[in-house]
Design a protein that fits this description.
By secondary structure, this protein is α/β, with parallel strands linked by helices. It has six helices and eight strands.
């Protein structure tokens, strides 16, 4: 489903998105947790797309407060590692996963910024939305491109929670995005090699 089609149909889909899954076979869940204020539109789109990629039900949870504890005043950014630790404390069931969604500019020590972070083979992951928007770079808004980028970064970080490392294949969603050029070049799907490593 194209982004524009989804946005048109969104009102009719909102009633079922909290429990929707295109291919879920069990009651395993991916919890989307907004960190601070996040537009409902992007959360709904992520929920729909992720439910079609992973055999999990996707549920949007109540947002966490804006993480003042992670704010670096000098950089005017938020430390992704500290937010990730907070998400780990949400205590999902054993087989469940968490994806934090933050409309905040994130960084980790040693890097200028990150599109996301995750616990390798763990439960929690986190993506940052601001640098996925064309407007961040002084360009005209492109909502469809923004939504596509968000899905790719979400799938990528969740892939890490299933034990996947970065992939050399530039078209694989697990390829490392050093810039948006890398994100735009790759797809939202796992390559054959990475898919074989997934536990489902």
């Amino acid at each position: 489903m194209r982004v524009t089609q989804f946005l048109i149909l969104a009102p009719a889909l909102l009633l079922v998105l909290s429990s929707l899954s295109c291919n879920a076979k069990e009651e395993r869940k991916i919890y989307l947790i907004p960190v601070g204020e996040v537009e409902k539109e992007i959360l709904d789109y992520l929920a729909f797309e992720l439910s079609c990629i992973f055999p999990y039900h996707v549920e949007i949870k109540k947002s966490l407060p804006k993480p003042g504890y992670a704010h670096n005043k000098r950089r005017n950014q938020y430390c992704a590692d500290l937010i990730l630790e907070k998400l780990k404390g949400e205590n999902p069931e054993k087989e469940d996963k968490i994806l934090g969604v933050a409309d905040l500019d994130l960084y980790t020590p040693g890097l200028n910024f990150v599109f996301g972070v995750a616990s390798l083979n763990g439960k929690a992951s986190l993506i940052a939305l601001p640098r996925l928007r064309q407007e961040f770079y002084g360009l005209s808004e492109n909502k469809e491109l923004y939504c596509e980028r968000a899905v790719k970064e979400a799938v990528h970080e969740l892939g890490h929670t299933f034990g996947l490392s970065h992939c050399r294949n530039p078209r694989c969603v697990m390829h490392f995005s050093n810039s948006l050029y890398d994100t735009d070049r790759k797809g939202k799907e796992f390559c054959k090699s990475c898919r074989k490593k997934l536990p489902f």
